[in-house]
Amino acid sequence: MASDDARVDVIGAPDAVAATGDPGGGRASWQRRAIRVLPLLLAVAVFVVGAWNNRWMSDDGFIHLRIVEQIEAGNGPVFNAGERVEASTSPAWTWLLTALDVVLPFRLEWIAVITGIALSALGLWLAMWAAVALNLERDRDRGRDRVLIPAGGLVLAVLPAMWINATMGLENGLVFAWLGLVAWRLCRWASGENRLGWAEAVLVGAGTLVRPELALVTVVMLGIVVAGEWRTSRRRHLFGLVVAALALPIAYEVFRAGYYASLVPNSGIAKEASASYWSSGWEYLVDSVGPYALWFPVAVLLVAVLIPVVRSARRAGRGRVVAVALGFPAAGLLVGLFVIRVGGDFFHARLLLPPLFALLVPVAAVTWDRRFAAGVAVVPWAVLSLVWMRPGFLPGSLEVGRNPVTIDDYEPILNGIPPTWIDGPGAYVGLGRLDQPPPPGIETAVAAYGVGSIGYALGPDVYVLDQLGLGDALTARLELSTRGPVVGHEKPLPAPWTAARITAPGSVPDASDFTIDPRVLRSIDDPAGRAWTDRVADARATLDCGSVSDLDEAISEPLTVGRFLSNVAGAPGFTRLRIPPEPRAAREEFC
């Protein structure tokens, strides 16, 4: 590591000798150091308090916890035992929770919530020190004793959307931690003359295991590193960096294809992530930015802080600093554009927070300097955000002052369905037990919407049919001709399919047992006057025909070497497969 970079410790803070020139450090040295970093610590503290006060577990979070239970039960990373379906978009988060649940003596719900807050705080801390490493002048002694100001870090710390999304049981905290760690390492790489190590390249490439769209950040950052070292490093080293960065993503993609018979997570198919839905994405952007007037602090910091940093680095001939300072905002904009293109998300601001985080990395913290004086305009905005600005949507439990974390906290509601309605083996829909038995080999089958909390409450042995498709391969692959009303929840499984899936062959349950609330979900099938019994028969027949039957075999047959290789070959076709939602049309196409 270069000499000008060697005086910054593992968290970015200068040691006592470098900071004061006092070989013994001493109380005065320690006090100056504490005062210097106190604003950054306060920003992290504000964030942690806000996240803790808004702690909760979401229904989608419980989906991940159910997958962890399946792993621990020996069924693999699946939603239902016997069906290899990738219901999680973050394998890294799923396996991290599994590891923590093995070693920690706490409830899994609390492990997920506390880990989410801790990782979010770590990401914020690392991002601020990354910006410090990026923004210091070549002559670091000029800024070494100056107080550090959490400019962009303050924006993230006081944002209610960050608090709400830090917990909820999803991978949000891991996303922020990964972004912060990558930023810290690359900003230190940019501020020195050292080469990037292969282990650091692996870190940069691991983004796709955290969330698929973070591949865009990986591509931008890897391109910056290769360009930055093109004249100073051997081609063999650069080739090694690229191989190291891509090794994990490629290895996992092969595993995904062979294990799940798909090239993308099942949720990506269910939400039609390859399609464009710009109007919904624009609404999502407005809903994410508008409640907080986020455009104001972002514009202030980019103009008042980022531009001076880039100008100073250009004058000093520090090309790496310029590239990284502009690269993170560029990567953030690319990810944000992708999120907007696919229509956003059903939950407030969640998918646009990582782009915001990346956008603010180079301005997350600065030394107190008159060059950045205009950046103090974010302070009154931060005060308003703390005491007044709130999104129009909050989880219902938080709106009434509750902080439900465990499944016991949710027991009275569970998406409106009490978990005690199960009364022995059988087939269940909504609150009712059907007269017909479940399919052969399944003791208890439950069809539901919002299956996270219900699935976790019922345990890994109960078969739970996800009628929205996140945890079900067939539902995810239904054709979608009309978008809306709730992005990502646009493929409710038509009633005949549900009847055919959770009851034994030859049985025909009453049509009145299967309903969809039109205020929440839009039916995508077209009965066209066809009798209910005929529609159920069409659905049953289609399950045994053509590509639909092949898909079922791919995900349910024992995973031999031959099945794995067959799945790898068939994964592209299974990923593209779409099934007409009306059973008669599906039967005509596949049988």
Structure at a glance:
With about 600 residues, the chain is mainly alpha-helical. About 55% of the residues lie in helices and about 5% in strands. The chain has two domains: about 5-55 and about 85-385, no CATH class; about 415-590, no CATH class.
Termini distance?
A: 65 Å
Structural domain tally: 2
Approximately what portion of the residues adopt beta-strand conformation? under 5%
The order of strands across the largest sheet is: 4-3-5-6
Rounded average pLDDT: 87
Low-confidence runs (pLDDT<50, min 5 residues)? 1-25
Largest sheet, in brief, is: 4 strands, mixed
* Integer-rounded radius of gyration: 26 Å
Helix content: 55-70%
Tell the overall outline: elongated
Describe the 3D structure.
With 591 residues, this protein is mainly alpha-helical. It folds into 2 domains: 3-53 and 86-387, no CATH class; 417-590, no CATH class. It is 55% helix and 3% strand. α21 (451-458) links the parallel β5 (444-448) and β6. The longest helix is centred in the first third of the chain and has 28 residues, at 108-135. The radius of gyration is 26 Å and the shape is elongated.
